[in-house]
Design a protein that fits this description.
Pfam families: Aminotran_1_2 (PF00155). It is built from 17 helices and 13 strands. The chain is of the alpha/beta class. The chain has three domains: 55 residues, no CATH class; 115 residues, Aspartate Aminotransferase, domain 1; 235 residues, Type I PLP-dependent aspartate aminotransferase-like (Major domain) (Aspartate Aminotransferase, domain 2, 3-Layer(aba) Sandwich). A seven-stranded mixed β-sheet has the order 2-10-9-8-7-3-4. The longest helix is centred in the C-terminal third of the chain and has 31 residues. It is globular and about 60 Å long. The two termini are 43 Å apart. The protein binds pyridoxal-5'-phosphate. Pyridoxal-5'-phosphate binds next to helix 7.
């Protein structure tokens, strides 16, 4: 339909002549035009360059917020967005961030950062991910580049994979954060999947996962969520991580840890990096895509870090030089402000302590909301087992609601969430939890 429309535009331009010169039909357009446009001879002057472009599909996550904002209802509830809210449903700027802002105000130049970003920030970020005393840091075996938050870190990694391991594929858990698939697809890496979540138990499909890891070709790339898996809230236990690490070693697979929620799972940033610690202890060379969007509330600052543990200091230097070369034509060098904020917080013992308290406070409020939602559902007599609400961890609850039930919640109750039934627990408050429970109970009543 859109192609026909494009063809009509082109035909009109050719027949009537728009008077623009130099706007010839590019050869690559020929496949997008309708037959009628193509068979007309004479001057091929266009009236539009983009008439053949149709609307892009809505992003499954960001599209929810758009629909929520367009709803005029007073009682609407947004549990779609993966951003922390306080108990009044308001966005939060952490106190440690406010203090860091005051400290850096006016004292820093606005010069470009190097392609790899702020060295001090990168050093502090990798200590947070791998541990202050990590041997790989001491041995200077970590290539680290400041990135445009977690998404940018993933994209740099995907491009590095494509450039230097062009024959490789990448495996993602089912389900995963939907943007993972876009990122690696746009970097031209073959995307595969492995079993992760069991809808029957609403927990981990550990056997399925291990089987798929075993059956993947040796030396495959895997993206694992380091903690607080999005969207399921289901993480392997410590013992399970150990088994996963050992199997990965056997298979010589490469792991990219996506760590977008360090601190949000348990409230403790050290505990939340346990998977990375276990893999490093087993001698893996891992990569890590870190984001400070959630745990420091720096969403719009786009501050993150891609790090890659290498075999030697020289290898790390080479890899880092290549990653920054990938960044150069994309955005040249990363933004300054977020790096200053994070570096100020992580390097000052007082601010760091305050930050750790604030992360815990956010994680604790989410845990409390999990308990309240479950209590309310059980209290109003729901016959469904809601144990998974409190068993799952991190920002999200993979509720088990079907797309039809989600649609009903939106239509009848103005409650917004992604159609896979993911509830952002950060959007639940003491003010809306009862309403949410009542609505969920009503749409699931008929379910056995
Ligand atoms: C698993 C996962 N990875 C990465 C990101 C990246 O977020 P950002 O680019 O805002 O840091 C998110 C955000 O929702 C996420 O859930």
């Amino acid at each position: 339909m859109m192609m026909q429309e494009a063809g009509r535009h082109v035909a009109r331009a050719i027949l009537h002549g728009s008077g623009r010169t130099g706007a010839r039909v590019a050869p690559s357009w020929s496949g997008l035009m309708s037959g009628s446009a193509r068979c007309i001879s004479g001057s091929s002057v266009l009236s539009t360059w983009w008439g053949h472009v149709g609307p892009a599909p809505k992003d499954p996550i960001l599209g929810v917020t758009e629909s929520y904002l367009a709803d005029p209802s007073d009682g609407k509830v947004n549990v779609g967005v993966g951003a922390y809210r306080d108990d009044n449903g308001q966005p939060v700027v952490l106190e440690c961030v406010r203090m860091a802002e005051q400290r850096i105000a006016g004292i820093e130049y606005m010069e470009y950062l190097p392609m790899a970003g702020m060295k001090r920030f990168n050093g502090l970020a990798i200590k947070l991910a791998y541990g202050d005393d990590s041997p790989v840091i001491k041995e200077r075996r970590v290539a680290a580049v400041q990135a445009l938050s977690g998404t940018g870190a993933c994209r740099l990694m995907a491009d590095l994979q494509h450039r230097f391991r062009p024959e490789s594929q990448v495996f993602f858990p089912v389900p995963t954060w939907s943007n993972h698939l876009n990122i690696w697809r746009d970097a031209n890496v073959m995307v595969k999947s492995f079993r992760y979540y069991n809808p029957k138990t609403k927990g981990l499909d550990f056997e399925g996962m291990m089987e798929d890891v075993k059956n993947a070709p040796n030396g495959s790339f895997f993206v694992l969520h380091a903690c607080a898996h999005n969207p399921t809230g289901v993480d392997p236990s410590t013992e399970e991580w150990k088994e996963v690490s050992s199997l990965f070693k056997e298979k010589n697979h490469f792991v990219v840890f996506d760590m977008a929620y360090q601190g949000f799972a348990s409230g403790d940033t050290s505990k939340d990096r346990q998977a990375i610690r276990i893999f490093l202890e087993d001698g893996h060379q891992v990569a890590c895509a870190q984001s400070f969007a959630k745990n420091m509330g720096l969403y719009g600052q786009r501050i993150g870090c891609l790090s890659i543990v290498c075999h030697s200091e020289m290898e790390a230097a080479n890899v880092q030089s290549q990653v920054q070369q990938i960044a150069r034509p994309m955005y040249s060098n990363p933004p300054l402000h977020g790096a200053h904020l994070v570096a100020t917080i992580l390097s000052d013992p007082g601010l760091k302590e305050l930050w750790l308290k604030e992360v815990k406070m956010m994680a604790d409020r989410i845990k409390l909301m999990r308990s309240l939602l479950r209590e309310h559902l059980e209290g109003i007599g729901s016959q469904i087992n809601w144990e998974h609400i409190t068993k799952q961890i991190g920002m999200f609850c993979f509720s088990g609601l079907t797309p039809a039930q989600v649609d009903e919640l939106t239509k009848n109750y103005h409650i917004y969430m992604t159609r896979n039934g993911r509830i952002s627990m950060a959007g639940v408050t003491t003010k809306n939890v009862e309403y949410l429970a009542h609505a969920i109970h009503t749409v699931t009543k008929a379910q056995k």
